[in-house]
């Protein structure tokens, strides 16, 4: 029986796939999408044995109707409405570095207001990525002192940035 099914499926494909495909391309203009519609149409025909038992012309008319409904359903689907077909893949956006440059200049200027001790700790922590333990070891000062300088340095940095128009 499985060999018989394969033979019948092959006959169904041979008899109807090309005309249904041309019909779908005529409806949509989409050659690649037509393949999917034809596959779904033939699958539905395969699942409906009464269609296969009918006259080939009647079966093909049924398949044209099914294909048309599949095309309409696809056009109405939410997925289709969100997709935008383009001829070429868009280039990836390159972020303008101007804002980053101005931000860096603003931060550098605000860091200049801090005392050397506070600036050294803030820069090592936030730009160097060091922990308070690592900063304390590098500078040869107690960890508590690093935490205190970091706290007061960030507070002064926030005030300096607010004076320059940066708000929270």
Q: How would you summarize this macromolecular structure in one to three sentences?
A:
This protein is mainly α and 168 residues long.
Which secondary structure elements does this structure contain, and how are they paired or packed?
Blueprint: H1 2-28, H2 31-47, H3 49-52, H4 56-76, H5 78-82, H6 98-111, H7 116-127, H8 132-139, H9 143-163
What does this structure look like?
It is a single chain. The protein has nine helices and no strands. The model has no long low-confidence stretch (mean pLDDT 85). α6 (98-111) packs across α9 (143-163) and α8 crosses α9 (143-163). The protein is 77% helix and 0% strand. It has two domains: 6-82, Rna Polymerase Sigma Factor, Chain: A (Orthogonal Bundle); 98-163, Winged helix-like DNA-binding domain superfamily/Winged helix DNA-binding domain (Arc Repressor Mutant, subunit A). With 168 residues, the protein is mainly α. It is rod-shaped and about 95 Å long. The chain has helices spanning 2-28, 31-47, 49-52, 56-76, 78-82, 98-111, 116-127, 132-139, 143-163. This is RNA polymerase sigma factor. Belongs to the sigma-70 factor family. ECF subfamily.
């Amino acid at each position: 029986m499985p060999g018989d099914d394969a033979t019948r499926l092959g006959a169904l494909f041979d008899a109807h796939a090309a005309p249904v495909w041309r019909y779908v391309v005529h409806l949509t203009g989409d050659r690649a999408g037509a393949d999917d519609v034809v596959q779904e149409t033939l699958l539905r025909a395969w699942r409906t044995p009464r269609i296969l038992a009918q006259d080939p012309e009647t079966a093909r008319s049924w398949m044209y109707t099914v294909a048309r409904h599949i095309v309409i359903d696809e056009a109405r689907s939410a997925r289709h409405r969100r997709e935008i077909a383009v001829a070429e893949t868009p280039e990836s956006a390159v972020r303008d570095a101007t804002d980053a440059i101005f931000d860096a200049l603003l931060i550098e200027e605000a860091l200049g207001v801090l005392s050397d001790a506070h600036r050294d700790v803030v820069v090592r922590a936030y730009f160097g990525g060091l922990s308070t333990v690592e900063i304390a070891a590098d500078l040869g000062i107690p960890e508590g002192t690093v935490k205190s300088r970091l706290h007061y340095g960030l507070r002064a940095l926030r005030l300096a940035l607010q004076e320059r128009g940066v708000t929270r």
